[in-house]
Amino acid sequence: MKYRTFPNSDVTVSELGFGLWTLSTGWWGDVDQAQAIRLLHRAHDLGVTFYDAADTYGNGKSEELLAKAFKGRRGRVVLATKVGYDIYGPDTHADAQTHRGQAELPQNWDPTYIRFAVEKCLERLQTEVIDFLQLHNCKMDCVRADALYEELGRLKSEGKIRLWGGAFGPAIGWLYESIELMERRRPDGVQMIWNLLEQHPGTRMVEVGGPLDVGFVTRVTHSSGLLEGKYTADTVFPEGDHRRHRPRSWLVNGLKKVEKLGFLTEGTGRTLGQAALKWLLAEPKVVSNLPNIYGAEQLEEFAAVSDVPDLTAGELKRIRELYETNFGIEEEPMKYKGTMTEAQYSASS
Fold first, then answer.
1. What is the predicted pLDDT for the residue at 237?
2. Can you say how many angstroms the Cα of residue 299 is from the centroid of all Cα atoms in its chain?
3. By the number of CB atoms within 10 A of the CB, which of 143, 159, 210, 243 ranks highest?
4. What is the pTM of this model?
């Protein structure tokens, strides 16, 4: 395993991280606690030191899993989590979240609430400091809340957090929110959706944040599984899997694009899943990647990414050319729900 450091800090993380979304929400299949802890231990044995949770994942379950898995090993791991959704109010307790399914919860950026939420995260993680705190799905009201960033400064000076940043999503988008956060607030890091098939707006975010010394953490690294190379036109996602609700065109068009990527694996010693990670790691400002990990075999494959050849300049060029022509596929353009358009951003500035 290789390691990278967040810019202007001493926080060093494995270039493959482990996001606990798949282990704690039930939206990618159910995993019991014993299975989850075994998988986390195996990841650590393979050199993974960076683990990303959120207070909303399973209503705190992801943080509790980390506390159980790494009890007595706190100094060997880097823990990240997220706050911003109000999971403590009468309408947002665990039962209400179950009832809501995947509906978005209300957010609360009041400094008093954020401090309270951070304290609760620390309790569940059973630690005195959060290595990387993220503002969860930070929208423009979050970006422009001056008092919030004063409070983050206090939390940092008190030693409760080491680094802070924004996590953007859930729908791919959030270009203007992320740019204003980076230019106006200078976060230590940004987590974003970015992968070989879905390069917008991540590429633009890196272009802006890179010169500002922002460290990037990527998620949805394999385009919700398309870049793992295991789906076929006959794939049917089980009940409860969030991909079951996507239009079939997502799978069909995605598979057509993947067919064009054989040059990344043929005779290279890489799997498609490893090549997808290598594409991200070709960007030096990417400090770690959070693929969806839900099994030991897949974990072993991804953890070996440091040992396979980097993408060549020629391969990177070919990927750029394919992306610029949408891989030769005609399809409806993606609509970015829940994020500002250029006109809305101009009007709000």
1. 74
2. 16
3. 143
4. 0.92
